[in-house]
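Re: the 336-residue chain
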Amino acid sequence: MNFMCWEGYDSPRILKPFESAHDVDINVDLITDSAGGFAKLAAGGYRHFDVVTSDSPWIARMGPAGICEYLDDEGFADTYAQFYEEFQAPFAPLQHDGRSTGLPTRWGWVGPTVNTEYDSLETWSSYDPCFDPAYRDRICVLNWGDWPIMPMALHAGINPYKELDDAELREIRKVLRALFNNTRAVVGDLSTAQKGLLDGSFRILVGSGTYATSALRKAGHDHIKSIVPEPKDGLNQGIVWMEATGIPKEPSSREVARAFIKHLVSPETAVKLAWMDTTCNLVPNREAEKLFSQEQKHALQMDYMWTAWEKSHFHSIAPNADDMLAIFQEELSRAG
């Protein structure tokens, strides 16, 4: 069986039990960005894979691209019954023409990532300090595709998940320019960002969230937290991200591929998937919560997760993503 996925899903703790139970060998193709993985599938590569795990918008796009093996919700009824209500079928973010393109596997939120030994959470109840001269050269922007752009657009009062006009794109340019003028570093490496946050060099990570903080909290640094800003002018300021798993069109074995998805989202596997070395994340399976220790729940900020959910947009493909990415690179080059 051929499996395209993010790092973490390839862990032997995840794959070996399934391989033994189903007498299969799983060949893994790791992706480093969802758009690149999707481009590979859309160019015909879907024929070479049986299961794909990626960011949820790209799994959803497999439907309209015609490269998706739709999942029968009734066939997964026992799985959905274990999920939190928010993720149960029909789950709109993964639906196309009333059919499911995949199942959710991990999730979290994007918002200010803060070291409370240096700043209070109240200070970061909005992104205002990113533009405050008092924080000049203490801001770190994660160079992770559109992730740092979306919260800045929301801060500017613009919903980046709808079609944008020229005036709105100009406002996004202005807010990114102001952000870079106050920024110390634009960082692509997670460990570098985490180190700067721990030692106080960075007072916030922009474009980050639970994906960056959870491993630090796992290591005992529970003064590191990811929060969601308060809504501004009626517009939510947080973003919920999610990974999902789907089956490309005409897999070598539909039965085995479907069984593998059920394996990934089962309570026992979900706990392992949530608790990795480099990153720890929430899972959609409600039954898995019973298997987490109090230490794990604390590290994952499970006491805050539904607050974050309620104050966030669900991440989807933005119609003007390419325009915003181009603006980001232009303003970054100008600032450099």
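Residues 176 and 328 are 7 Å apart (CA to CA).
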